[in-house]
Design a protein that fits this description.
Elements: H1 2-27, H2 30-35, H3 46-52, E1 58-63, E2 70-74, E3 80-85, E4 91-96, E5 104-110, E6 119-127, E7 130-135, E8 147-150, E9 154-157, E10 165-170, E11 175-178, E12 188-195, E13 198-205, E14 209-210, H4 213-223, H5 231-244, H6 251-265, H7 272-299
Length: 300
């Protein structure tokens, strides 16, 4: 009897095994696998192919409108942790959302040994190939490609009309940036600048602004001078500015540089070499002017 039961168990096991093999063979049928293979990209519609392409990040150029802007990175709890400082005039790009709006958020910022308290509006930016967050009040906004220099003290206008003049004045040497769409007026520009402690939008007359790169560079050097901790470095920076100018350069350059150096010297002592180099440049320019006057006089 035991032999019969053993025989039946063996036969049953063999039959069960064969049945499973049959099921497994159905699961790996080559024709079924072929039917489920991916469709070649070339056979997909244009819209379907577009969804396979990597998403391209959109950016818009902006400008720092004050010196030493703090750059932050976001930590896990959503707070902004200080990373480093930027310089006025450096290139910076805003991250844009799919709809073209600026990527920004309200967040608290952390400073060493301090607790985050107030919320500020932060904008996501690309700076020196890295991703950071900056306070919205310290950048000009999107579609702002360059800085302009206010040539002389000039009045602010509430609207782009002559009769909308105000008593507020923007001082000579202030660096401003065009607001988004601010270049569409004939006599005026809509500008953005940092009027501590806030970013301010104003209308200024076009003829009050200069886009001269040399004069803007002079202004940038002096406004970023706070970062030059050593007086030796400051003297060297100013000397380099003086030596970069030639006697044949427009007199406005040398006059502007002279004014900036004298104003700076009211607070910081400068080396004798700086004053000597400036005097040599001024004298060389006077000599060039005399030669030019003699030539023009002889031509008459």
């Amino acid at each position: 009897m035991k032999k019969v039961l053993l025989f039946l168990l063996v036969v049953s096991s063999v039959l069960f095994s064969c049945k499973n093999e049959s099921k497994n063979s159905e699961k790996i049928d080559p024709s079924v696998v072929a039917d489920k293979s991916p469709v070649p990209v070339a056979e997909l519609s244009e819209n379907e192919q577009r969804t396979l392409e990597p998403k391209k990040q959109r950016f818009s150029q902006t400008q720092f409108i004050r010196d030493e802007v703090g750059l932050y990175y976001e930590v896990e709890d959503g707070k902004m942790h200080y990373a480093k400082l930027s310089e006025l005039g450096d290139s910076v790009w805003i991250y844009l959302n799919d709809d073209g709006s600026i990527e920004q958020k309200l967040a608290q910022h952390l400073i060493a040994n301090q607790k985050a308290k107030m919320f500020f509006d932060f904008v996501h930016v690309k700076y020196e190939e890295d991703s950071f967050w900056v306070r919205a009040d310290f950048i000009s906004g999107k579609n702002s490609q360059k800085l302009f220099l206010v040539k002389e003290n000039t009045f602010v206008y509430a609207e782009p009309e002559d009769y909308m003049i105000s008593s507020k004045v923007v001082e000579k040497g202030t660096l401003v940036a065009l607001a988004d769409g601010g270049d569409k007026y004939d006599k005026f520009c809509k500008c953005v600048y940092y009027d501590a402690p806030f970013k301010t939008e104003v209308y200024l007359k076009r003829d009050a602004l200069s886009d001269d790169e040399e004069m803007i560079e002079i202004e940038l050097v002096f406004q970023n001078m706070k970062k030059r901790n050593s007086w030796l470095v400051r003297d060297e920076v100013i000397l380099n500015l003086i030596n970069a100018l030639k006697p044949t350069d427009p007199i406005e350059y040398i006059s502007y540089l002279t004014d900036k150096i004298k104003k700076f010297a009211e607070k910081e002592e400068l080396a004798p070499e700086v004053w000597s180099a400036l005097e040599n440049l001024q004298q060389a320019q006077k000599n060039e002017k005399s030669k030019e006057d003699e030539f023009l006089g002889g031509a008459k």
